[in-house]
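Notebook, student rotation project (T.W.).
Task set for the rotation: take a protein with a known small-molecule partner, predict the structure of the complex, and write up what can be learned from the model alone. Partner molecule chosen: flavin-adenine dinucleotide. Sequence and SMILES entered below by T.W., checked by me.
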Amino acid sequence: MRTAIVVGAGVGGLAAAGALVRSGWHVTLVERGDRLRGYGAAQFIWPNGVAALQALGLSLGDVAFPFATGGIRRPDGQWLVSSAPGVTGGSTAGEPVVVHADDLHDTLMAGLGERLEIRTSLEVTTLRLTGDRPAVGNAKHTFDADLIVAADGGRSVLRRRLAPEASVASTGYTAWRAVVPWFRSPAVQANGEMLGAGHRFQHATLGERGGSASATRGGIYWVATVPGAQRPESPAAQLALLRRWFEGWQSPVPELLEATEPGDLVQQPGEELRSLPRRFGFPVGSGAVVLLGDAAHVAAPALSQGACLALEDAATLAAVLRGGAPLSSALDGYTLARRDRVARVAKASRRLGSVLQAQGLAARARDVALGVSSGLLQRASATATTWTPPA
Ligand SMILES: Cc1cc2nc3c(=O)[nH]c(=O)nc-3n(C[C@H](O)[C@H](O)[C@H](O)COP(=O)(O)OP(=O)(O)OC[C@H]3O[C@@H](n4cnc5c(N)ncnc54)[C@H](O)[C@@H]3O)c2cc1C
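Predicted structure of the complex:
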């Protein structure tokens, strides 16, 4: 039986581990956290992410809720792009669904099956690229396998070793996300998106207030993006800052921030990988190491595509390995199928981010341009969502 070690139990690692188990591999999943959990409040999963889940034999079922805003407004409520295709409005490229991070996590966990070894509280610090098979480990343990899947996120220690040419850079903005549970949330039903000078706010309903039993993690998800670096203050002080920055914005922005508690907040820096790794697969003796998810490519968050791309990676890896294909040809197939694709999405997301987060005069120019044509938004989301799973 072929053996694999998957490092990192985020969306990418869980999806890859499940796919390998279902293909008959013996898989060990290694995570530095003390338990496996969902992270990031909630996620937009675009049609390409849904297609990748389907290719992996998984489905979000009734924990995914449609997200359409009908357009984008200014902080004063005026429409910038009204009832027209937009980044998150109805577009020819399709609309995303929104899913609670814990529900996405549960979906991926359900796909793991039972024939898998899970090691938590184990931080990988070493990678051995000599000998017949690759190995990972730390000061105490070393584990080797036919295949190592590096799914250890944007700050991947494994990528640093395999592809030192790729480095993480700031996009110049920071995001905060939260899910306000129904019992605390203001009376907002609709989804929405607003753009100010440098500031962006999106909100999406996770099910209905008092809705079906399946919406156990129901509420209102919001994402606020603000220029500048991460804030070192306590979550309570960060929340106070957010309330100040978004003061005077059209309802329901202030109400949602008022209903948010410090413990709901997830702060994340906007980052991207400048110069992608030259390849995503590395032969080692008769074995191999592959980079997957944010470990391979971190795209600026403007298009909300990172988790979807990680799911695409996992579906592609499963496809190239299908039928016991030799690892060397599978590696080439994996890089070929993924590198150009993620480079295109990363570029579109970077461009879109610089437009959406424009400040000062550039923001005014953006507002005029968006009022005339929402083509940029449509093109960016079409680039990202147009993807067919490999046969
Ligand atoms: C503000 C914001 C909003 C976003 N919204 C969306 C969205 O709506 N939709 C979407 O598709 N994407 C979105 N993304 C991107 C998405 O969250 C990420 O791309 C995705 O989570 C990447 O998954 P991953 O599994 O590759 O990495 P991660 O989620 O980072 O998981 C890596 C895992 O590896 C573990 N790990 C790390 N190092 C080690 C080590 N040395 N040893 C062992 N374990 C290790 C970590 O603990 C973690 O569990 C957003 C990103 C941001 C910043």
